[in-house]
Design goal:
The chain is of the alpha/beta class and 488 residues long. It has two domains: 2-234, P-loop containing nucleotide triphosphate hydrolases (Rossmann fold), CATH 3.40.50; 253-485, 3-Layer(aba) Sandwich (Rossmann fold). It is built from 18 helices and ten strands. The strands form two sheets. Strands 2-3-1-4-5 form a five-stranded parallel β-sheet, sandwiched between helices. Helix 2 packs across helix 8 (214-234) and helix 9 runs parallel beside helix 18 (467-485).
């Protein structure tokens, strides 16, 4: 693969000047059109040390409006970044719609740039799959992804290292890691071959660039980007996807929920403080063992999510948890992939994050109310499963509770809120409108549970007609899951 790159090719000065002037005009105009069309762009530069990534990026952005792009240099993860899943820091850096992000090194550090010993190759297939999933999710959402691998020979790299070391202004660029990779050039070439083969996809292909001649590599990069931008701007709007039709009589996981279960106040008062104390003990163990925990709450309107969360957190150390209430996405959030805001809110190792409504909004309210197109919410089932798989692979405990009440109980609670002045803020016109679509929401909830209840992140259906029973079951579920993860 790398041997197909012509490392001896060069471009004359006059030919370069003519080509680059034309390409600069094309790239500047394409950037404006991409901005107007709301198309985000990711440009990734990987390759050998001293292959010319920095100078190529500097030349690339010259004709661009600096307000519409940002350059990121991915260094080895910091101690803080290691407390999150590997992709967390890159989700945080993703560009909004219409903006271009350039990465000088990227998520590929894990599989190539950082020294990887032979015995560590067993973990590479998992990392490759995480990368493919990450890039596919972004591409499905409309992002243009262009990846360059800058290739030079071992001899050229050694020569450039010597030149850099001879100049005090640049000698810092050649450290022990760079020297080690040069000495192990063949090994890293093999790793690069694997990386390119495993992660070059139709939606995010690699382009191999010779880094030997500066003029040639600048023109080849600009030509590739101009072609990618033109393709993105000319692609037709996707044909609308029709939601799948379902049989009129369909079994549901909710059919087997016994909403008549209840708990006497005396039993509730006895169990509640014990479970809260146990959860607080487990919280400290999570902190000591650096175990992150996500608790996701969904449920019918007025099902008691807020009350369950308050009892869950009442005895916890507030320094170690956060409650994240989720509403409809705001202006900035609408400019990103629907999972972007949830990646940003994840807990670091040893902490707990409780989501009051979650990423499941895409397949619930956004589906039912028509805020998401069928093709968006249909693919969201897979995206959500992949998201949760990434969290669990990092060692995170994912606890998901759906609080279910009957239509009759919801109506009673709505009326109670309407008639009680201090509770009236809890009821809105939207709640009444949603109630009119009770059957549609029930169908969406059933599909959600069936398609996203997995062995590593199962749904717990909480019978919530009786608030005492629901609060205790939520606490028991959390204590059981966290205790199991801690080995208790």
């Amino acid at each position: 693969m790398l041997e197909t790159v012509n490392l001896k090719a060069k471009l004359g000065k006059e030919e370069y000047r003519a080509a680059q002037e034309t390409l600069d005009l094309q790239l500047g105009e394409a950037q404006r059109q991409l901005r107007a069309a709301g198309i985000p762009v990711l440009v990734v530069f990987e390759g050998w040390d001293a292959a010319g990534k920095g100078s190529t990026i500097a030349r690339l952005v010259q004709p661009l409006d600096p307000r519409g792009f940002k350059v990121h240099t991915a260094t080895p993860p910091t101690a803080l970044e290691r407390m999150y899943p590997p992709m967390w820091r890159f989700w945080n850096l993703l560009p909004p719609k219409g903006v271009l992000a350039v990465f000088n090194h990227s998520w590929y550090r894990e599989v190539w740039n950082e020294p990887i010993e032979d015995e560590c190759r067993a973990g590479l297939p998992v990392a490759y799959e995480q990368i493919r999933v990450f890039e596919r999710q972004l591409a499905d959402d409309g992002m243009v992804i262009v990846k360059f691998f800058m290739h030079i020979s071992e001899a050229t790299q050694s020569k450039r290292f010597k030149k850099l070391q001879a100049d005090p202004a640049f000698s810092w660029k050649v450290g022990s890691a760079e020297k080690r990779r040069n000495k192990q050039y063949d090994k890293y070439a093999s790793l690069a071959e694997d990386m390119i083969r495993e992660t070059s996809t139709p939606y995010a292909p690699w382009t191999l660039i010779s880094g030997t001649d500066e003029r040639l590599r600048s023109v080849r990069v600009a030509e590739t980007l101009a072609a990618a931008f033109d393709m993105a701007l000319s692609r037709p709007a996707p044909a609308p996807v029709k939601a799948p039709s379902l049989p009129p009589r369909r079994s549901s996981p909710l059919d087997h929920v016994n909403l008549d279960v209840s708990m006497p106040r005396e039993e509730y008062d006895k169990k509640l403080p014990k479970l809260q104390a146990e959860l607080r003990r487990l919280q400290y163990l999570c902190y000591r063992q650096r175990l992150p925990v996500v608790l996701a709450f969904e449920g019918s309107d007025a099902a008691g999510k807020g009350g369950a969360i308050r009892r869950l957190t009442r005895e916890l150390d507030p320094r170690g948890y956060a409650v994240v209430p989720i509403a409809a996405p705001d202006g900035v959030e609408k400019l990103h992939h629907h999972l972007w805001r949830f990646w940003r809110a994840l807990p670091k190792a040893g902490h707990l994050t409780i989501f009051d409504r979650t990423w499941y909004g895409r397949v619930l309210v956004e589906r039912v109310e028509g805020f998401a197109r069928p093709e968006e919410w249909l693919r969201a089932y897979r995206e959500i499963n992949e998201f949760e798989s990434d969290l669990v692979a990092h060692g995170m405990v994912v606890i998901k509770c759906w609080l279910q009440i009957s239509s009759e109980e919801q109506l009673r609670r709505f009326n109670d809120r309407q008639d009680t002045p201090e509770k009236r803020w809890k009821i809105t016109d939207e709640d009444w409108r949603n109630r009119e679509k009770w059957d549609d929401y029930r169908m969406a909830v059933s599909a959600m549970i069936e398609q996203t209840s997995t062995t590593h992140a199962p749904w717990t259906i909480v019978e919530a007609n009786d608030k005492f029973h629901a609060r205790i079951k939520v606490l028991q579920t959390a204590v059981r899951a966290i205790g199991k993860a801690l080995g208790e």
